[in-house]
Fold these 4 entries.
Entry 1:
Amino acid sequence: MTATVPPKAPTFLGLPTAPRGVGHLRGDQSFPDAARGALRDGQLRANLGHATSTIRGKRARVVAEVPDWEQLRAAGKALKAATMARLDEHLEELERQVTARGGVVHWARDANEANEIVTRLVLATGAPEVVKVKSMATQEIGLNEALEAAGLDVFETDLAELIVQLGEDKPSHILVPAIHKNRAEIREIFARTIPGVDPGLTDDPRRLAMAARQHLRERFLRARVAVSGANFGVAETGTLTVVESEGNGRMCLTLPETLITVMGIEKVVPTWRDLEVFLQLLPRSSTGERMNPYTSTWAGVTPGDGPQEFHLVLLDNGRTAVLADEVGREALHCIRCSACLNVCPVYERAGGHSYGSVYPGPIGAILSPQLTGVEDNASLPYASSLCGACFEVCPVAIDIPSILVHLRAEHVEAQQKPTAEGVAFKALARAMSHPRLWHLAQRAAGLGRLLSRGRPTLPNVLPPPVSGWTRSRDLPTPPRKTFVEQWTEEHGR
Amino acid sequence: MSAREEVLGRIRTALGETRAPVPDVVRDYRSGHPTTGPALLDLLVDRVEDYRATVLRCSPAEIGATVAAALDQALGTGWAAGDVVVAPGLAQGWRPAGCDVDDDRPAVQLADRAASVTAVAVAIAETGTLVLDGSPACGRRALSLLPDCLVCVVTADQVVGSVPEGLARLDPLRPLTMVSGPSATSDIELQRVEGVHGPRTLMVVLVQPPRVGG
């Protein structure tokens, strides 16, 4: 009955996934192992609980005041699906338009190639350092490490990215990479790592933000090269878009002589008009604001205004493999708002680091395994209770729960050996279709009461493979009598 | 094979030889906004102030004086004309006497100025968003970025209700900056703090049409 499967997990239609050994899409541990440590960290759980409940409230308020929210969501979903259906044509148009306006377009098959391109471009300018706008794509490919390996200094300029970089930490949230740190911890990092910082620095968020402003100001003013990501790239006009809050993005997009933008190929949108949908959906879902403080758009090079050299690097790195899966491709619709993280009960407790990838939370649980091939992130499709809250808040209505189930099925199919779960369910199926066996099994289960010694749940003493289940779940003590026994007693035969 | 050919080839493989038709995009969301007239300006003011920016209203005859009043409020009354740099295309009557006018200087030199004054291309009431488009009246992008205080003059005819109306008025080939309040961050415990790298103070001078029959 089991189909023969290739020893290597399948890449859809032979399309390559993101390569191993570069970037940040794979963790060192499986999700449950990593989460176990996070769950013991009371400070982390308190920080995450506080932050996510704050942002949930803000989002709910500003979404509720938009009477046509559901129509916008539906339009956002349809726009993304329509874009993916002709992705090649839109990218070719984007390339034509960017080139026509003085930009240079590069194509990168994967993280290694993108890192090589950007490093080569930076080295060609002769600049010793790079300022960076927060970008998920460059996090994904490990660009900072590649630039540093080439002897360049890299400065993250988003406040949260700066906190992560100075703390030699890893990002744990798409929007607020330092969400796992509270103000006291951030003050400690700044006091320890920023040269010449005011020794009287307090943990007042305003004072901390001012310390970051001071630290980065001079670097912005002397910067010759900046690297950014892009929220949207408009094919019909060649217009790139960066959505941000602090003005660090504007500094990087405006002051340097050279701008290099790394954009995942799924970020293209066909027309300028399409932004009227996404610029309504994104800020309200993301920071819970009617509009984020700054949105910058540019098309190629503008004489006398901003960088006079512009490079756009279009990145695949496993995206085409995701596109090949007709169910899973919806993960490419993501606009990186992080609303699904903020509502996820699993994320709130386990934290972003447990996912092992720069894309944490529900969207990460469907995106990372598809980008790497499910065998390299096999535990992530299970890092969810399938409660559906992520689907409810997703501004482009990605059906995350269904894709999780789809990936679980794919993972199970890829297993060569029968799993304990598979064996258990086969036994269950047999017992349930044979009344006598079922009756015996229920009687046998009653023996579990002996283990419980009167407690409502069984202790974690069951042998493998059952221990795999009970390690993270409470198993109720079986009742004294089965339902059928009780019914027979009370009602006769 | 070049990376370009290979990536495009992979997309074609992923989408298959016989491609599914492109799904329809139904745009049944609001394109406009029900609010008009003075109520539309009130909505803009409400939304801009919600970002902790300051709005000063005036008549067309009072623009110059109101820009000066905005600078008084932001910088204190002792400011010198040389502290303020204005967009090269800003109307003469809107400029403080003796102020600096932006020219071809290296952009970073604008960081020495305390405040800048610009016009806008469009203002979106529902989201409290001002859009600068790099035209001579709005100035280059660095002008509205480096000085710590930004004063924007908005005329009533530039105010639209919704995001779709705003984008429809803009030229996507120009470098655009959409400004919704002063620079801000929510990176520390997701608490909003106004004022990081961009201007910490945003002043809006809203020019109302003269009252009919007043």
Entry 2:
Amino acid sequence: MNEIKIKSKNLNVYYGEKQALFDVNLDLNEKEVTALIGPSGCGKSTFIRCINRMNDVIDICKVSGNIEIDGVEINDKNLDVVSLRERVGMVFQKPNPFPKSIYDNISYGPKIHGKGETKSELDEIVENSLKKAALWEEVKDRLDEPGTGLSGGQQQRLCIARAISVNPEVILMDEPCSALDPIATAKIEELIDELKKTYTIVIVTHSMAQAVRVSQKTGFFHLGKLIEVGKTEKIFKNPDNKMTQDYITGRFG
Amino acid sequence: MNFVLIFLITIFSLSLFFYGRSKTKSISIEKNIKLNALPKFYGYYLVLWCSIPSLVFLLIWTLFEPVIIKSIIIETAANQGAIFNDKNEANLIYEKIKAIYAGTYFGDIDTILKESALSYAKFINLFTNSKIVLIFAIVIASVIYSLKKIKNNNKARDDVEVILKGLLFASSLIAILTTLGIIFSLLFESIKFFSVINIFDYLFGTNWSPQRAFVRDASAITAEEYDELKDAFGFIPLIAGTSFIAFIAMLVAVPIGLFSGIYMAEYASVKIRRISKPIIEILAGIPTVVYGFFAALTVGPFFRQIGENLGLTVSSESALAAGLIMGIMIIPYVSSLSDDVINSVPQSLRDGSYAVGATKSETIKKVVIPAALPGIIGSVLLAVSRAIGETMIVVMAAGLAANLTINPLESTTTITTQIVMILVGDQEFDSPKTQSAFALGLTLFIATLVLNYIAQRAVKKYREKYD
């Protein structure tokens, strides 16, 4: 078992009057893929958006409780979210490349954080990020073409490369394959397998099969509560909770 | 008379609706057949058939009646010995005849006029009577036709659709034809102007003083007179003044409008937005004349005062004052349009930027604005064409002297202002001075058309990106 990287304690999230998460206590292990499953609206996305404080963007969202990364509290007003997000990257449900060239899409993050001061350093970061995202071979001859011109699967790998470009420790993935076809999905899953050697990955997914394929640990959310968490194998073969059993066998959700 | 007719036709058509509806219902019950459409469609069908042909006829008749009567009357007057040398004199006599008929003519009435007025009265009567008869005939014919149709259980729903489609098409046709009419009237008058003044003298001349051509008949200008006139219609000072004032206006409107648009779209809370957006938009609702007051009475003298304190000579009518106020007037256009385009940049792009650790202002500067740029350019170009077309503020605040200058403290003038000045008051319609207004109008029209076209292309290009 790897060491614990992220630890949430009594995490509660409210959107205005509505409570979206109830006392979530969840530990995520380093250099491992944790899958979060559950029906729509159960709070899995809300949970991962707490890890890089993306919920700050939403005015009415209030977060209480604790999240620690490497033992340091991040749900703290005084925390610098810029450096937090440098450490915790994110990939979204729908590929969202900037309407810029492929090169600029990747170099955007490093430039913001003052990495890659010379052109050659930047070139290297771009090349490495694209290689890690398994996209380099496909785009190396057309780095100055717009990122929006790539196919859906390529766009999503571009977004993964963009997340990698600032050299994070954690990558959050919010249903990264839900807008992709099966072949593109397979490529992304392969990539996730590779990336977990370097990064701690949290993936939200609606596909049970995907959770089984890519993750080592699985958490099941329902109505804002973490119902059960454990080794992926155990959750899918022999869950403790009746609700988990019903969900993974497709009886509700 | 026409109003009574329109009223009667309308009332009658509407009552036919109820008749058609109940009639078809009873037909379907009596003969035990299934109607091809709901009963109300038969009602609509009758209404449309009864009203449209007669109203269209009435419209056409009303348009052509005066023209026809006029030509008949002028001809009878001529037959009776009235003498007129050209069209204008003929028109004059016709107006006299009309005035006699209306009882508002107080001059001497000779026999020719008297006879003509009598025949005018006769024709008016004849035309009015035949109009009424024809309209009744049309109404009866179309009602009989449509009643026969609905008794045969026609496909009233489809027929109503066809008629409505025709009506909508006719409306758009009217809009297009009106536009074409405006363009052609501009074009023809401009051609008259350019047949007197060489187009190159107009486009590249640097002196604008059209009053020199006052009361000169365009068709009778001699070669010597032309030499004297040809440098009176130089377009350069006007386009320079127009662009200069528009430029000053944009210097004010683009940064303030854009920044307030960014604030509204990205930073303002829902509450602030709800209050401040309407307030900014009120600026767009202030009549330009009021801006003109403000520019002429407050801002102009203010600059003059400052200038005097600094030892500069400032005209109380200055390009700076006009441009500044015009800029303020345009702020809401830029701000509201750029607010809209910035809002339509998908949130996912902002999320992508935040997720790699960019701050809000970095995100706006490097992702949101570039993505919204074509739309922003479009809004700026629309604002420019608004600035170029603006008249009132310039009339009141920038003066009328066509100075070719780049000193913002001097008075200057614009195309629209000159058009106003040329056409205000009594004018000889065939003097080159008056005709030059149309040439200016045409030039302005082409300039704004090009700007609008570019603006729309830019906005369209932007839309394609995210749909």
Entry 3:
Amino acid sequence: MRKITALFAMLAFTAAPAFAQDAGWETQGLTDDSITIGVMGPFSGNASSYSKAMVGMMAYYQKVNDDGGVHGRKLVAVQEDTACDSAKGLAAAKKLISQDQVFMLQGNSCSGVAVALRPVVEESGIPWIVAQAVSDSISVPLARNIFHGVPTGSANGRAMASFVLSKPDTKNVAIIEHSNDWAHSYSDPAKEYLKEQGITPSLELTMERGQTDATAQVLQLREAKPDFIIAALYEAETAIFLKDLKKYGLGDIPVMGTAGTDLENTLKRTGDFDTVKNYFVIHSYVDNLDGPKMKKWADMIKKYYPDEELSTFSFVSIGSAEALVSALEKIGPDLTRSKLIAALEEVRDFDTGILSDPITWTPEDHQGVKGSAVAGFVDEKPAVLKAWGQPY
Amino acid sequence: MFMQLTLSGLAQGAIYALIALSLTVVYRSTTVVNFGHGDFVMAGAFLSYVLVVLGGVAFLPAGALAVVAMFVLGVLFNRGLIRPILGGPHIGLALMCIAGGYVLRGIARMVWGREVLPMPPVFDMPPIFFGSLVITGDAIVIISTVLVLLLCFFGLLALTDLGKMVQAVYQSPRGARLIGLNVDRFNDVSWGVGAALGALGGILVAPVTLLHPDLGASFLIKGFAAMTLGGFGSLGGAVLGGVLLGVGEQYAGAYLDSSLIEITAYVIIVLVLFVRPQGLLGRKAVVKV
């Protein structure tokens, strides 16, 4: 008996610091008047324009803070640069988790980086709302603490292929993409959808990030004569690809792009309407960027970041930030990480007023947004579309 | 398709040739491999962007001004940062180059941060069609500019007294010093010429691609690959290597797999180092003991 008592005493002694650490861990990054949130994004590098999403999100935090915060706590963003590079992203995540000891993470553009971060963040257990990266494998298989706050690649990829096939007589579809997780997260579901409709892509091409010329790819497309091209390329490469398409006389072939690009910036980058007139993109919002439903969000960003140039990406992370704030409000002042995760799993049909589809997170499914519209130029003006020639 | 790929490869290769040549000019005079050279390329492109877009200067004078400015920067870089440590270990020189490059990149990031900038179209002439062959304005401008420049450069080296002085310093800096040549000044000029040629590569590529502060990194790798292929230290080899790399990338992308375009440079570096370390026009290093 004495031995058993001694054993229990020893166990209690060794376990005590662990319990104490658990209690502390639950409220790490919290004070009476602040909640620190680690915000990772590509603030440098050739994908740095995606960090506009983080800027929009942080503007929303500031608005919430100006309105009194959440139960008296201000949202304090701790910013880290990933440069859209997995190694830098991992270093940033480890710093935020171990050194800065933030309460939670929100943000992340660049799926390749987010996928690389997943094991680290999952193991840490701290809540992470993925607010721009789209790869399905960030949030599937389910990780208890990881939530997707934007339409994922599978939702977008299928929407892209569905739009492509909604154009009458489309039979010959070619695909050009980067060879990274982000691009595959769009192209794989798109190919799956095409296959379901009995279509195999006539050509599958790669254009790597940083390439400054797409001649080799465009010349192969010229031989294949596709009816539609699906392009899973980042912004800079999209502009180069579209310029080269036009250069070699293929400017009339419609191109379906991802949510990683937008019409306005692609037009700005190519500098020529003729180059982008047949370019379509996934569009996750309720309205055109200059439409009345988007104005209040644009005004909000401009209020806190007057010099910020707005693009599609500026708005994409605001919806999930709204869902976060709503969950934090429901929890009350007695906040812990576990309570936040539980509250996020209770978010149902949350209308953000900015994303085209609502956010629903359940204990079984953390991919919150299930659909997207498409944007394209109609009469030389950006328009939101449901299918080829059909307004949303 | 073959002809089109060749033409496009020549245009791309002309840029690589320019960058490899500029690296070689610096290497031959000071034996320093400028690991920050990609950022000189980027700086040239951004300078021309500033002059064209913000200053409203026409592309041609803007390009010329940017080249001159980069020449001065190259000279100052050598005088201020390289010359004082030239006798030190090579790793120190390499790190100094990297640091200098990062300073340029940092300045660009501070000013333009997260923007990817388009240069207004300046080669916007209608393409010429020969059957299915499309000869674009940018290909004509890039190839002809680089060709004229190379003719002047190699003509100067081969046919003038200045060229003979350059050859003398290349062969033996100490000997050149003994016959009264100012080798330090020569090195300044070499750094200036290297920076200016690299910048010209950036200026020519700016209108056909997009500008961002990290633009130079991939061009640096291409420059190294071209130098390795042509023969490290060989001026003619650098040009030949650049052109072959440009054309090789296009053929590999079109006839083998489009994903090969980006790794062609690395494959070339590995193959050449294994099969013919001295490159196509380089001399085999002989160490006498």
Entry 4:
Amino acid sequence: MTCPMTDKIFKKREFADFLRALKKTYEVLVPVREQGFYRFKAIADGEEADLRFTNTRLSPKSFVLPQSERMFEFTLDEKIEDAHILKEATRAYSPTAIVGIRPCDAKAMRLVDVNFNNPEFRDPWWVKRLNSITLVGLGCSEPCSTCFCTSVNCGPFHEEGLDVLLFDLEEYVLARPLTEKGKGLLQSGGVERDADEGSRNKAHKLRREAEERITSHVPTDKLGQKNVNDLFDAPFWDDVAFACINCGTCTFLCPTCWCFDIQDEVIRGGGDRIRNWDSCMFPLFTLHASGHNPRAEKVQRVRQRFMHKLKYYVDKYKNGVACVGCGRCVRYCPVNIDIREVFRLMNEL
Amino acid sequence: MNRYVDEIRVIARKILEEKAVDLIIGFKEGSIPMMTEPVLIRDAAETDQLYWDSFCFMNLATYLPKREGKIGIIAKGCDSRNIAVHIVENQVKREQLYIIGVPCEGMVDRRRLCSLVGDKEVREIAESDGGITVRGEGFGHTLKKADYLQDNCIRCMHRNPVLYDAMAGDLVEERKDPDPYDDVREIEAMEWDERWEFSSTLIKDCTRCYACRNACPLCYCPTCFVDESGPQWVGKSIDPTDTMIFHILRAYHCAGRCTDCGACEQACPVGIKVRFFTRRLNRDVFDLYACEAGLSIEERPPLDTYRPDDYDEFIR
């Protein structure tokens, strides 16, 4: 029998102790600011998490789906018996805790999971990695003006995908376990004290206020019922795509972009089969061996990115849009292509 | 609003109405502070979308290669030099273009502004003559614009367009004082291994998104060497060697053609100062051939000219 999940509480100044305790069981990744932006990093002794961040520049998807991952290795040396035979590359799946992940990025992992782990396909590495990671979310008390999470089935304190959700109550941190995994983590971290009702009320208020502070909203209600060909042939794609320089910034920063390419790299008679992040923005993404490219034009590639997120995914998985409203693409697109505007154009067509 | 905006709109409207051009390439106001969006306008009634401020850091010449018809284009100093490079390299014809020149006193580096306020969000920007006000929740600063310029603008000596059909304002005074290659000399003063370490650290965060390459007006090859798949020249992973090959080769392809517009650096999502690579080569080209890219539409770039009577023996 499992106990019900009870909110726990600890002093904020004990945060470093909490992390230190976790390090006995987990590899602990926390946000740190380095070379101009925030990123998740394993902390060494004496280093501290910097929780003043709004969000990390790149999403933490790379801890489940690394940008470059060695899948197999092989030898071409025919004197060796198993020449040309692919052998799975060894990987570590040691228990890892991402502490401070934003709720949007955790929810994104659920959205991607339906692609990598479904009755038809099961990507063993994605599944094993995701299982080995415990996600300790930190609610966004101060969301950005480019965050639109509440419009896309998410929110600044959204719980889906998380194992624990932390509420920053200034002097205290309220820790809400959401899964057995999360409960175990809090035990490892020495967090045992039950939260009192006053703190729970404060947490509730913090959440409500944060949700009210989201000022950016996008419409999504009509996307599902639109005719896919009407959207595909919509008149606005040329305008949307004009400024696009077809770089991979949006797709590489996005927590829900999962596309990859597989390459063999050989050196001195041995080699690796590697899977690398790919981007629908790149012409090579769809280039056929024949030389034909079904998405040879920029506008086709731009359309693909938005159609995939806001229509194909919606239709295929009946799971909402493939976007969590983190706003990274809005903030870092070098030419200011704003997905919120594309939501409007597609929804209102 | 910036003093050039009205004039840009007036000229743009006029040339569209008079059918002197089929379209205008300019900037429109961004959806978030410190950003602008390149825009294509065909209808005179839409010219009020055109906008100008100190965050028009993309280089509009990027949108020119192989474009047909008569094109109106807004150009600050560096954009105009890249337009000149395109003309010399046969990417567009001079007679296709109506260039609306904008005198430039430098673009403001949004990252420099952001680092001033930590990780807080800048929610509002207001520009006045020479000043810039940055506001967000719990802070407000009025700053001197000149203290927050992009690195390339600090060293710029061609702020006025070199090529234009109309100007949206009076020419600004060109600066004579900047030391254009002080940073290059600093790196050259390093030992070899130090220099390698410096470059490797510089690109450590590169995600191979190619924003630097794609923001660059010079990178118009139909298929870039990193995208070539038969044969494949460069590995596609984030192996540091492959990443370094990409950056070094990209810089070499820009040698003698780069105007140091800084679009590459501004586009980079992880803030890599990629200009360190191109600037070293710009300096070499300047030292060896006394040439700066894009100052004339008569001269070919130094690295694609050959003269049988060249005074250097090694090339004859």
